[in-house]
Design brief:
This protein is of the alpha/beta class. Helices cover about 50% and strands about 10% of the residues. The protein has a five-stranded parallel sheet with strand order 2-5-8-1-9, with helices on both faces. Strands 3-4 form a two-stranded antiparallel sheet. A two-stranded antiparallel sheet has the order 6-7. Helix 5 crosses helix 11 and helix 16 packs parallel to helix 19 (about 440-450).
Length: about 450
């Protein structure tokens, strides 16, 4: 973890989660303690560190109450590798479908992106300098006396001298850094990657075998160093493209791989959604026949094993697993006893109430009312939600959840879309107008749907 993570106490983590997720105090506390324990573990001696296992969590509660959001926000807060998978996507080894080890491969790929981006930021300045030199080379090569983009005096009638070109380069550099040449077109040379043999098969090929096919094929290919292709683009586009190319060449791929594997092994978070759908140990046939097999395959990952990937072996001993499910039909005790034992922290999330909906619509940084206000603000429409309007939206959502399937806070999306359907459609023609969403406005838009249960079932 980063040194700054020491300041992320459980109380601070819960306070940060409160900015995005309403309620669910117990779940937030459990996740905060699990994350803090990871920091505590890294402060221990090497011998003791290896003995401390992660306290995996099982979140139980109906859909739309914040299970996924809590896991995603905590991963973002910690800047940790994170992957969300549906347990129902996987099948027992021997059946057609994805095997569970692909979870760790996906997690490593996300870590590679995070680490590579950090490495690129570190060399960003140097990469831009190298890109600038390549753009200047192209601009100087294209320059001729009398070029209206740059004024210099040629010292001879037979063409520019080396002294003139040096002056041109200095003046072009000044104009380039000032952004005055961003729209000027220039011919540049880019590295040609179109014939890389690995690209024929795609990066995902042979992923389950842990073989990096692209690297293997490149070793078989005769060396063709320096192969480039020409491209014509504006200076602004060239600077962006070449900066990325130079940054990529400056990044130490071996270090990136090593750091990414270490990041996954010590700070990776896997969110196993719908784990209740693979619960159950009854024998049978049909589509559910491999449910117990999926649990058996998950068990080694959760308790700690080594997974082969195309970047190298990854140990899962200290990866944090957060299982989640509604557990309407099944219950945690229906999971294999070994898997239950590997998820010692159990938290029940509460169903959301009408009061919770009011808070969800107003308190979080990304509250729906703020999102819609900003979206319509791009059309110069001033959208205002009154307190009674928000209360009515919450009442309608809670009523629809009681009457139909309870989908939690996701019901707010359908209600909001129905309430603002007309304004959203007419937005371009309402430029400069104010639209007030009060209780009467909400009832006008959705009142009939609440009264007509059959229609409301399909619309709300």
């Amino acid at each position: 973890m980063k040194p700054a993570d020491a300041a992320l106490t459980p109380a601070n983590i819960v306070a940060e989660l409160d900015r995005y997720v309403v309620g669910q105090k117990d779940a937030k506390r459990a996740v905060a303690v699990a994350i803090r324990n990871r920091w505590r573990r890294m402060q221990l001696s090497e011998d003791m560190r290896q003995e401390v296992l992660p306290k995996n969590i099982l979140l139980m509660g109906p859909t739309g109450v914040g299970k996924t959001e809590i896991a995603r926000r905590i991963a973002t807060l910690m800047d940790a590798p994170f992957t969300k998978v549906e347990a129902t996507k996987f099948t027992e080894v021997g059946y057609v479908g994805r095997d569970v080890e692909s979870i760790i491969r996906d997690l490593l790929e996300s870590a590679m992106l995070v680490v590579r981006e950090r490495a690129r930021r570190k060399v960003e300045k140097k990469a831009r300098e190298k890109a600038e030199e390549r753009v200047l080379d192209a601009l100087v090569a294209d320059w001729k006396p009398g070029d209206h983009d740059i004024e210099v005096f040629s010292s001879g009638e037979g063409g520019p001298s080396m002294h003139d070109l040096q002056i041109v380069r200095v003046k072009l550099r000044e104009r380039l850094r000032a952004g005055a040449l961003d729209d000027k077109e220039v011919d540049i040379q880019l590295r040609d990657t179109s014939q890389e043999l690995g690209n024929i098969f795609g990066d995902a090929s042979f992923a389950q075998t842990g073989i990096d096919l692209k690297q293997f094929m490149e070793k078989l290919r005769p060396p063709q160093a320096g192969k480039t292709k020409g491209a014509r683009m504006t200076v602004g586009e060239a600077m962006k493209t070449l900066s990325g190319e130079e940054a990529e060449s400056l990044v130490d791929t071996e270090n990136v791989t090593t750091e990414a594997i270490e990041l996954v092994e010590n700070h990776g978070i896997v969110f196993l959604d719908e784990i209740d759908k693979v619960a159950g140990r009854q024998a049978g046939s049909g589509p559910d026949v491999s449910r117990e097999g999926v649990q058996r395959d998950l068990l080694p990952l959760v308790e700690g094993t080594t997974v082969s990937t195309r970047h190298g072996p990854v140990k899962t001993d200290h990866v944090l697993f957060i299982g989640a499910g509604a557990f309407h039909v099944s219950k945690p005790s229906d999971l294999l006893p070994e898997l239950q034992g590997r998820m010692p922290i159990r938290v029940r999330l509460d169903a959301l109430t009408e009061e919770d909906f009011v808070r969800i619509l107003t308190e979080p940084r990304n509250a729906l009312t703020k999102q819609y206000t900003a979206l319509l603000g791009t059309e110069k429409v001033k959208l205002k939600f009154t307190d009674d309007g928000i209360a009515e939206i919450a009442r309608v959502a809670a009523s629809a959840n009681r009457t139909h399937e309870n989908i939690g806070a996701r019901r707010l999306f359908t209600v909001m879309e129905r309430v603002l359907d007309e304004v959203s459609f007419d937005g371009p023609s309402l430029k400069g107008e104010k639209v007030q969403v009060d209780a009467a406005y909400v009832r006008h838009r959705v009142g009939d749907l609440l009264e007509d249960q059959d229609l409301g079932r399909y619309v709300l």
